[in-house]
Amino acid sequence: MDTTVKSSPSPSDPPAGADGRPADAAEAPSAAHGIGSHGGLAEAVLEGGAGGAAGVVVTRPGYPPRHLEPVPGVGLERVRVSEDVLAREAAAHLRAWALPAGGETEETHDLARLRALVAERETRLWVDLTDATHALVAEVAEALQIHPLVVEDIVERGQRPKLELTGGEVHIVVYALTYGERLDAAEIDIVLARGYLLTSHAKGWDPLETHHLRIGPAPLLAGGPDYLAWALIDSLVDSYYPVFDALDTEIDGLEDAILASADRQALGRLLEVKRTLVDIRHVISPMREVFNQLTNRELGLVQPETILYFRDVYDHLIRLNDEIDSQRELASGILDVYLSTVNNNLSNIMKRLTGVTVILAGIGAVGVLFGMSEAGAAFNGGERSGFWIVTGTVLVGAAIVAYVLRRIDWI
């Protein structure tokens, strides 16, 4: 029995409908999204696929198309999970909202119902996965006909913010940021197609708690999956501002603390803040390029009236990039202030030691000149007034030198 890795659409593939799904799901070749040997979801595997073209073509705006050849022996495994286990996982980790044409919004946690909703051509879908297992992601991806390369990225996590076009869908990777004692960044994968929106994320971020969705997803889903995607991403970008405000406050406090006393604890916290700013820059800078692509290219998945909303998000990201550059300059300036303060303190210590040395050196020179053998006789009254005159002169001279050094702030 032959096995062929699924390729990019060929002339024999069924035509896609207006919603981006296959025009005839029954005639589409059956595919199994499995778990690859490298831990990611495997490429679709077709049985008896002789004559099909090997490899896949991946396109990204601004880059030439890439033709990926299949790798023998990689991605041919599949983890078999019973329907009962999948049903329990879906109930705990899957939420789906469907808005049929002229109907009311339906919410479901059932995989079988999700498959039925996918088959309805005019229904708009939003599928949200929270801490989903590999098997559940694979089943949802199979129902939505998501490209296996995209599903692999969703499962593996650790992606940089990006936008990638694969077939009739666009994969967007963004991050949710929270800042307390340290920075926490949670990856959020968004797959946008004509008929649906898929979001996959960890438990720490709940899309229903964002300010655009407090009234529910129905009004946003009515505007289309692209409008719902904008609402989620706009809420994410807006949530960055409290993080920047907290960093501004902390940088100001560190500046005051270091100017007051340059201690090691303040220096350690300053270095942590600088590292946090670098991590935030790794998130913010690529996102600016993502939305530049969304607003300046005809993707076919974003309505012209929605592009204006994405452009607003792009403007916010430009402002945040400027803000993070300013904060990095402030942090670097505070570090320079710390180093200057340490050097100034060292200079003050050296001046005081020099002043004390001058006083003691003068006394020591007179003592060496006259010797210390006469001290015993002097205390016994055996010395004449000359000894006491020299001693008094030395002490008075030392006092004068100390006064002068004090006036010039050397001691």
Description:
- The protein is an alpha+beta fold and 411 residues long.
- It has a domain at 346-407.
- The chain is built from eleven helices and eleven strands.
- The chain has helices at 83-93, 111-119, 134-144, 148-156, 218-222, 225-238, 240-260, 264-296, 304-370, 375-379, 385-407; strands at 3-5, 45-47, 56-60, 63-68, 94-99, 106-108, 124-130, 162-166, 169-179, 183-192, 196-201.
- The strands form three sheets. It has a seven-stranded mixed β-sheet with strand order 6-5-7-11-10-9-8, sandwiched between helices.
Q: Helices and strands, in N-to-C order?
A: EEEEHEEHEHHEEEEHHHHHHH
Report the principal-axis shape. Answer: rod-shaped
Look at the structure and give the mean pLDDT: 77
Main β-sheet: number of strands, strand sense, barrel status?
7 strands, mixed
Helix content: 40-55%
Count every beta strand, where a strand is a DSSP E run of 2 or more residues.
11
Assembly state (oligomeric)? single chain
Poorly predicted runs: 1-56, 68-78
Rounded radius of gyration (Å): 36 Å
Structural category is alpha+beta
Number of helices: 11
* Lateral arrangement of strands in the main beta sheet: 6-5-7-11-10-9-8
Rounded to the nearest angstrom, the distance between the terminal CA atoms is 93 Å
Content of β-strand: 15-25%
